[in-house]
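Example S7 (structure tokens).
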């Protein structure tokens, strides 16, 4: 993955669910309550939750509405410690936007979650369901979806794949770099700035 930099200003898109907000724990807890199952986040080995759990699109949608609805968003932890500071540090390289696919009726609560967790960003972009993140004009993407990562990389853009159980089959490539923390993106940008 090579990107020229000489104090370059980057435009970075950061996904919300499972990159900033660790939603899958609450999601599986609610699935278990509704179905009498005992799934954990580590059991989510496919990004396609319908296929992974044998649920309907309607059930999947209801579960995400539950997770982000009412005051449940307050139960969602950040994906990592000191996330607010890390996102702020990422901002020294340019514009940092939240780019997510989430229903309009849940946007307000997701913004409340970001504020509650002191995560600053330049813009919040709610992409329509079915749209391709790769069609958006960003230099860097941070995402957990294997299909998004592949589409973004195939469009010639750089993606940092946030490590999750459902993206383990995706390998690093010239344009895809697996990360376990936002700090790794900052370290990478610091490194290429010194080259």
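Recovered sequence:
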């Amino acid at each position: 993955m090579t990107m020229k930099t000489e104090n370059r200003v980057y435009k970075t898109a950061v996904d919300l669910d499972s990159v900033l907000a660790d939603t899958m724990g609450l999601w599986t807890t609610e699935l278990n309550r509704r179905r009498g199952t005992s799934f954990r986040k580590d059991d989510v080995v496919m990004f396609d939750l319908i296929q992974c759990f044998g649920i309907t699109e309607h059930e999947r949608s209801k579960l995400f509405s539950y997770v982000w609805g009412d005051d449940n968003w307050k139960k969602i932890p950040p994906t990592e410690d000191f996330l607010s500071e890390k996102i702020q540090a990422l901002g020294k390289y340019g514009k940092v936007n939240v780019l997510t696919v989430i229903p309009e009726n849940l946007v307000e609560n997701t913004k409340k979650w970001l504020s509650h967790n002191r995560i600053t960003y330049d813009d919040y972009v709610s992409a329509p369901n079915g749209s391709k993140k790769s069609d958006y004009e960003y230099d860097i993407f941070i995402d957990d979806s294997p299909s998004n990562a592949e589409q973004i990389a195939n469009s010639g853009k750089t993606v940092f794949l946030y490590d999750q159980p459902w993206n383990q089959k995706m390998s690093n490539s010239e344009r895809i770099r697996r990360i376990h923390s936002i700090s790794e993106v900052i370290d990478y940008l610091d490194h290429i700035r010194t080259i």
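Notes on this example. The helical segments are 24-35, 49-53, 57-68, 83-90, 104-116, 146-154, 182-194.
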